[in-house]
Amino acid sequence: MITQSMSLQGQYFDGTRPVGVPGVFVFEEGKEATLTLPQISEKYSLQRLSVSPRIGRADRFIYLPNGAQFQCPDHAVLDSLPQESPSEGLIAWLEERWGIALAGVAIIVAIMLAGYFYGLPAAANYVALRIPIATEQALGRQAINWLDSNEWFKPTNLQEEKRTAILEGFDVLRSDLPLKDHYRLEFRNSVVIGPNAFALPGGTIVITDALVEASQSPEEVLAIAAHEMGHVELRHAMRSILQNSAIAVVAAAFTSDAASLSVAVGSMPALLAQTKYSREFETEADEYAFRLLKKHNYSPASFAAIMERLFEKQGKQPQMFNFISTHPVTEERIKQARDSAQK
């Protein structure tokens, strides 16, 4: 109930035209209010009116029985009218407190970061392990065909004797792996990616001529191949694809830029050839490779040797996408390889 007369100036909208008409709403003592316009004056029972929720310091709207609206500044007298939303008090209280708003933003950011660093990898791992290997193989074949047709690769120039020695060792390494029947070792000559090796989804591992030429023995090449086998067995390529695709979808949703998503999908084969796995993925693949090498009487020290040699070569002749740039080398990784060899 209104205990004293009060007037509010504002704009009257009849519901048919977008242009408002200046007017005054006078709230009288009791349960009535009078709306005065340039040529009209009409009285309303307060129970037949309703008011929009309070949103910060924004204007509020008084809804009239005929569908018209009266827009006016917020005022305490409006709290005496029937409210459109019964929860407006709590909402208004929250909106007026910057500390709560900032805390809410901080919580949202924390949730997003947790989802990015923990939730998304866990979800990608769960999904990747349930994707049929045949699906991965199809993606891997598509990727290498794209790389061949776009002249990233040319036929290998390696001598058959070198290739045979590496293939024989490769067959030994894969002989008792869970995905042993799905592996395929491909040799390619590539000026674009230099000395490199990478695993495609489904078990195809590509080794470039430059990488073989940088090695001093087949065992060093096999050490790199064992590392790539770790990526295959642990489904790192598919997990990376799933994570990057999810990020691209979210980015496209926020920016309304579907074209960027199409570009990301279209360039997927090239991205597979220059993938920079996370530090965690690289550590997992290293450890897997060290165990695999030792199991078949190869020394992890060969991994450290070729990594150091490639790192030195990069310093003298930098390559755009060589093995060091796509598989970051660190002293810690080389030390771990040597420590593993001594155990």
Structure write-up:
With 343 residues, the protein is α+β, with helices and mostly antiparallel strands. It has 3 domains: 6-95, PH-domain like; 97-130; 131-342, no CATH class. Helices cover 52% and strands 15% of the residues. The strands form 2 sheets. It has a 7-stranded antiparallel sheet, with no helix packed on it. The chain has a 4-stranded mixed sheet with strand order 8-9-11-10, sandwiched between helices. The longest helix has 31 residues, at 98-128. The radius of gyration is 34 Å and the shape is rod-shaped.
Q: How many alpha or pi helices?
A: 13
Termini separation:
86 Å
* Low-confidence runs: 258-267, 316-322
Number of strands: 11
Element-by-element helix/strand order: EEEEEEEHHHEHEEEHHHHHHHHH
Quaternary structure state of the chains depicted = single chain
What structural category arises from helix and sheet content?
A: alpha+beta
Percent helix range: 40-55%
Which overall shape is indicated by the principal axes computed on the Cα atoms? rod-shaped
Please describe the biggest sheet, giving its number of strands, its sense, and whether it closes into a barrel. Answer: 7 strands, antiparallel
Work out the strand percent. Answer: 5-15%
What's the number of domains?
Answer: 3
Q: Mean pLDDT, nearest integer?
A: 82
| Rg (C-alpha, Å) | 34 Å
